[in-house]
Amino acid sequence: MSALATDQINVILATDCGSTTTKAILIEKVEGHYRQTYRGEAPTTVEEPAADVTVGVSNAVAEIAELSGRQLLDEQGHIIRPARGNTGCDIYISTSSAGGGLQMLVAGVVREMTAASAKRAALGAGAIVMDTLASNDKRKPYEQIQRIRELRPDMILLSGGTDGGTQKHVVQLAELIAPAKPQPRFGERYRMPVIFAGNKEAWPLVREAFDEGVELSQTENVRPTLDSENLSPARDKIHDLFLEHVMAHAPGYDKLISWTNAPIMPTPGAVGNILRTIAEREGINAVGVDIGGATTDVFSVFDGVFNRTVSANLGMSYSISNVCAEATMENILRWVHIDMDERDLRNRVKNKMIRPTTIPQTLEALIFEQAVAREALRLAYLQHKEFATTLKGIQQQRTVGDLFLQDTGGRSIVDNMKLNLLVASGGVLSHAPRMEQTAAMLIDAFEPEGFTTLAKDSIFMMPHLGVLAQVHPRAALEVFERDCLIYLGTCIASAGLQKPGKEAFRYRITGDLHADGTMHAGEIRLFPLKREQQAMVRIEPVRRLDCGAGKGRPIEQQVRGGTVGLILDARGRPLCVGGSGGAKRDQVSAWVKALRLYDME
Amino acid sequence: MDSVSDGNWRMKRSVRYILALAVVVWGQMNAAPLLAEEAVSPVTVTVVDRPWDNGDSLVATIQLSAEHFQELHQENTASRIILTIAEENNGLYVPLAEYPPNDGNWEIDDAARTLRRIVSGLHPRHDYYFRVRWRDPAGDERIVAATSQAVSTKRQWFLGDKWVLAVVGFLICGAVICFIELAKLGRPMKVRKIAGLEAVDEAVGRATEMGRSVLFVPGIQDMNDIQTIAGLNILSHVARTAAEFDAKVEVPTSRALVMTAARETLQGSFLAAGRPDAYNPDLSYYVTDEQFGYVAYVSGMMVREKPAACFYLGSFFAESLILAETGNSIGAIQVAGTAQPSQLPFFVAACDYTLIGEELFAASAYLSGSPEELGSLKGQDVGKIIVAVGIVAGCVWETWLLWPA
């Protein structure tokens, strides 16, 4: 670990070892501020013939060294530390999702209570949750044992019972897992790590249930009482075991661990970490999305509560067929404003699945791919909303006035009206030919309400910054603000529905941009407002619509510009496109034209 | 030949039946004007059975001469027409009503010069005789018309003045049948979410996680109370959930019969959940019939054993607040439901979820999802809408009538 004080750190090297590519970035102090200066990438070398992740890391770092003229590797291929003049770096940090990342099995007594908390802990730590076992999951014990044997997780998280609560159910779960003898993915001599984060009084009984075949450890209960969650100890334990066991058995990771100045984090865990840090520091609610080829990760921070979901079958290449099946072709085509042959599109989908690295070659292909992306993002966000809920099983306090408003527990905490920042990353969003297309995909899929700033991760730097935030928060935040995010602009949308063509809201824009007028239901309009520009926007919605201050109440806020600008969206929420009552193709064409998404000439 | 004669015989028999039926119907239709007795001219009185009634009234119509009619309608006239009734011909005639003044029950037809009045409160199938007397300004009375033949009332199948109820009844019953048939055809019946029932899983889950029991109180009334039955319907759902979660559910009862019914319910639920082995008859037990003895036991048990979820679903009286407050103090999730309006505020204030009035009965339809119950629920809703619309329309109409010109 580095012995340097944070103010002495001037050069930072960070890598993210993905499944296919290892991405390295160099962060340097320029005129008193940390800036990301160079970037390099190389194929990941976890698989044969190299079977050593550090080879790929060295290649990516060598590319940066070549670009920057700074010598980062010594003759043995080791990273030079600390930095002296134009040689070496002060700290080196890394994240990893190579080999499928961290795959976990979680178990809890009640699916919606302790099992849900355990799942939140695992997802928050950056894991992919393969399955959730619970006493009420409607499966017979033999089916549960069979499932455990089929899966090959890296780690198991066992929770259940409040402190002083049930022991019987927890021991029953332990007695299901122990005889199933789950087999790990890596290493012959690998002992499956099992973390117990349940009723502490059940610990002696759980210990008795397992033999020497597993690496059993205990941490604090994820649900000490039903009224509160305590996920941090379990997440820390997962990180520790990830390094000690999972990483140590992956090819070359023992060497990589010895190189780094901070523990290696799973990539999604690091992304969540930086988003949480930003949301806490700015006091905002934020949502981040990373759409990949096979999976889509959604991160959210609402009122300080962090949630992450992985939609395992929603992606743009390996999982594109599943997106089409789940969303239906009809729903995908509602976003397409030109004639397309459905048979041709189905062939296109299958081709994308078997050739995942191909990119659209024609405008039609691009329009279709972005339509699929809209549906994949929409479905992933729906799953996220269902998962990110208030705790269940809490005693409610009511008055007689609540007679007709008896809310149940487990309400979604995701509130689009409260959302301040929406960050996009992933190929289809980051590499869209026009920023307007990225903004349109985000707005159509996430349906932000009120005032929402849109941004995208420029070069998928968030994982690096997530792990950096643990070592040097100031550097991470400065780079995040200056180099990581590309601000697309601000979207102002009215919530509620109004008859098409009727007045939705009046607007008055002052500051770096001057405009005023009326938006009618079904309209969307783009105003040029550059990144360095700001404007004061006053919105006066009609009685049925809400732009953030309540139905029919005017609201005035400062907004920031971006590469796209300021978007006023009067299409209403929920967004109705296609179908019998939704917007028709000519209306979608009007939106495409208003946002200048595609050059059709 | 045999078959031909047999056919003729059958046809003749059918014709006889039809003729007999026609005679009965004709008789029914013509039953109303039982008697039309002309009396001394120029005043006549006609008394007939009142149609579409329950057999306790007749309609008397007095036809006046032009002179009599004019005299009666003069200002400050002292002349009177008096309708009298007797139970035998030339017997003791008792005055029924006189005109003027109009007590509100006389219907006057100026063009036809008739006075019409419904005479009610009579005995069915009893003979009555009527006379009309004329009192001149001097106070002398004389008989001006009379019925010579007896008139009796006749009871009809339907009350004509209740036709509105018939229409409403047909509408509601029709709606119920219609919705049941629609539900049977597979048309989805949307039932508003009942928060208290949605919370059953949550409450039982809490008990499971905390390693505590679930307490179910089915009210303090016996099985003849519909609320107790509704409560036991919900118990089946709660017990099934508890069986699935492997949680303990306890049902103390204040009636022996309720205990037996609760045991049956529990057994069925454990069986349905696929856990018949977990059923224990002692989960439901009888405490006492005494209201406060029962409450004292249940409250004491709650304080000692601290169940994590308490359900109070049935008929409750003064014990509602004691139970709900005790449950609140031990930190249990509480779901209550009763059709006793006076107890609802206590439950709302002290419990997490409350099934208000009819929600208790709607719950079983909500839980079972059976077409019959869902259809009935929907049909009843139509009835409520009709009543609500009727009330509003009636208020508007009455207000309109009262409005000054």
List the helices and strands and how they pair.
The complex is a heterodimer of chains A (601) and B (405).
Chain A: E1 11-17, E2 21-30, E3 33-43, H1 53-68, E4 91-96, E5 102-108, H2 114-124, E6 127-134, H3 141-150, E7 155-158, H4 168-180, E8 192-196, H5 203-209, E9 214-218, H6 232-249, H7 253-259, E10 265-266, H8 267-282, E11 286-291, E12 296-302, E13 305-311, H9 320-327, H10 329-333, H11 342-354, H12 363-387, E14 421-425, H13 427-430, H14 435-446, E15 450-457, H15 462-471, H16 473-484, E16 485-493, E17 503-511, E18 515-520, E19 524-527, E20 534-541, E21 555-560, E22 565-569, H17 585-594
Parallel strand pairs in A: 1-4, 4-10, 5-6, 5-7, 7-8, 8-9, 11-14, 14-15, 16-22
Antiparallel strand pairs in A: 1-2, 2-3, 11-12, 12-13, 15-16, 17-18, 17-20, 19-22, 20-21
Chain B: H1 2-29, E1 44-49, E2 57-63, H2 66-72, E3 80-86, E4 94-99, E5 106-109, E6 114-120, E7 127-135, E8 141-146, E9 151-152, H3 163-184, H4 195-198, H5 200-210, E10 214-217, H6 226-245, E11 249-253, H7 256-272, E12 284-286, H8 291-305, E13 309-313, H9 319-329, E14 333-338, H10 344-350, E15 353-356, H11 359-368, H12 371-402
Parallel strand pairs in B: 10-11, 10-13, 11-12, 13-14, 14-15
Antiparallel strand pairs in B: 1-2, 2-6, 3-4, 3-7, 5-6, 7-8, 7-9
Helix pairs in contact in B: 3-12, 5-6, 6-7, 6-11, 8-9, 11-12
Primary descriptors:
heterodimer, A: 601 residues, alpha/beta, Nucleotidyltransferase, domain 5, Rossmann fold, eight-stranded mixed beta sheet, five-stranded mixed beta sheet, 17 helices, 33% helix, 24% strand, globular, B: 405 residues, Immunoglobulin-like, 2 domains, five-stranded antiparallel beta sheet, 12 helices, 15 strands
